[in-house]
Amino acid sequence: MRGQTHCLMNEDVAVIGSQSSATAWGRLTIDLAALAQNYRLLRDRAAPAACAGVVKADAYGLGARPVSAALYAEGCRHFFVAHLSEGLDLRAHLPTDAAIYVLNGLLPGTEQDCAASNIIPVVNSVAQFYAWTDLAMQLGQKLGQKLPTVIQVDTGMSRLGLASEDAARVAKETDRLGAIDLRYVMSHLACAEQIHKPANDQQLAAFRRLKALFPQAGGSLANSSGIFLGADYHFDLVRPGAALYGLSPVEDGPNPMAAVVQLEVQVIQTRHIQAGQSVGYGYTATAPGPMRLATVSVGYADGWLRSLSSRGAAYYNDLRLPIVGRVSMDSMTIDIGALPEDMPDAFRVDLIGPYQTADDVARDSGTIGYEILTSLGQRYARRYVGG
Ligand SMILES: *Cc1c(COP(=O)(O)O)cnc(C)c1O
Description:
- The chain has 387 residues and is of the alpha/beta class.
- Helices cover 28% and strands 23% of the residues.
- The protein has helices at residues 32-46, 56-60, 64-73, 84-91, 111-116, 126-143, 164-171, 174-179, 198-211, 224-227, 358-365, 369-375; strands spanning 14-16, 26-31, 50-51, 53-54, 78-81, 99-102, 120-123, 147-152, 180-186, 218-220, 237-238, 261-273, 278-279, 285-286, 291-296, 313-316, 319-324, 332-335, 348-352, 381-385.
- Helix 1 (32-46) crosses helix 3 and helix 11 (358-365) crosses helix 12.
- The two termini are 29 Å apart.
- Pyridoxal-5'-phosphate is lined by residues 54, 56, 103, 188, 223-225, 239-243.
């Protein structure tokens, strides 16, 4: 067992990030070959619908630029971000035939920037529709071109998009609709990972009804989990994020996705303590007998959530090393009783890896894998392999 290391280090390895691999205490490895494999699986499953990549929030914390480049190389031509600023950054790094969509819509005053940068807004409200089509009509008269556009309709989530009466009103604006190139009508599923929930069918029915108001446009409804609800949910474009990054799109049953993320952190000190000695802030843990502890260089400032205190674990190969006491800002303490006595002073342990997925960590900390990935801080050295 000991001396065995993970063999992600091979082929071309690019290390980027604010920390070099020599000085960083933690190492985040992103396997772009696994990402590409996940893209192919989702694409094949959704075909003949096109398959986008959702790369908002820096591709769920994994790096929007390298992730998008890898998806583009795999044939992906549709990229969704949440903010215009994310779209502008990506625009400069992707070829012009990549469509970039902004999910959160048009902030008032940004219409011109959006159009000039060849970014496609997701129009979420009547006000956005009028502001955007005002510009489209001006440009159309001047340049004879139509602005590519997505309209979102709300089918139950009450979060973003036109309510059904607003959608009906907008659908009557034939002059304005004539000035845009309405690529897709989209909506978002609230409960897609719960495959038996009636909400899915209800949202599907509502989506069909609202989409019929815009017969010229394609449809887009499914996120990662929605792809696994079946072909009825695929329409013309699916929008996976989480599953690309290896998170499980299905609540029950095995995860069909390949692991993309490995997170290893450094042990910076080891010690023996006696029965009755306390550990960490608040003295919330007390040794029941002699214990061997290691202090690891990771804390809640690195997105290793404080709710993992005395609940989660690190791994050394397949050996589980439970967290003892509270997670601090920059460190935490683990029980290394399962390891041989003659470990070196400094060694690495896995926080996300072959024996513990981001979904497992999420379960221990009472959240979802999405939050685990997007919380990963900026202090890790990031390695991209398999690209
Ligand atoms: C984030 C998001 C997605 C991707 O969802 P996953 O569950 O990560 O696949 C798709 N569509 C919209 C509107 C989103 O906000």
